Amino acid sequence: MLFANAGNNQAYGIPFNWNADYANGKNYAEYDLLTHKKNDFYLIQKNQVIRFGLFGQGMKLYFEMSDGSFNLNGRRIEIEYIDEIAEVYHLTTNFADKDLITYKEAYADYNNVQGIQQSNLKSINFGYKTNYEKEGVQLFFQPIVSLPLDNESPFVEVKLTSNKSMNGHLVFKSRGIEVERFYAPLEANRAGQMNWTIK
Predict the structure, then answer these.
(1) Are the C-beta atoms of 166 and 183 separated by less than 8 Å?
(2) Which of 17, 23, 165, 183 qualifies as a FRET site for 57, CA 20 to 30 Å off?
(3) 66: pLDDT confidence band, cut at 50, 70 and 90?
(4) HSE value, Cβ hemisphere, 13 Å, CA-based, for 184
């Protein structure tokens, strides 16, 4: 298991590679750690994954498949939604199934010269999407950790949709302590989205 080991694996080819730790103690990385052969994301054995995320640049950033909490280079990050009557929805303490997400954002500067255009990597991202249910409230929750490669600060993009209108706050915690909260009213069946700079 790459994320549980103390070792410092280096990414191959790009600053960060994705990795899935399996329950049997093995792992499946974007590039094989020994041969550097590229692996297929769609061949991840999702029912075996216990941790998923990125590694590289001396860092390990992942989430626990069991509850959805993030571990960002040794710091546990949790996200909650607190409604207008102080009901707490522990979004990252959610034991429902999760769909893995990872993608790279890139751009190309177009010029009129013939030949191959150079593409530039802008960010590498990972996270998941899931449904959270509590006492008749259904929340679609999608947190994505984004690592910009242009010296901007890393952030978490949160998408949240509720089956009921709610007038609450989105709360970000680090190691169980509230770091920041934002007023985040939700209109029934309409997605809300915000980016939180990781602190």
Answers:
(1) no
(2) 23
(3) very high
(4) 24
Give Cβ neighbours of residue 89 (< 8 Å, ≥ 6 apart): 80, 81, 82, 83, 132, 134, 137, 139
* Tokens linked to 37: 């052969």
Give me the percent of the chain exceeding a pLDDT of 90.
Answer: 82
Q: What are the distances in angstroms from CA 44 to CA 38, 146, 194?
A: 13, 21, 29
159-178 tens-digit pLDDT: 999 999 999 999 999 999 99
CA distances from 146 to 24, 29, 142 (A): 28, 19, 13
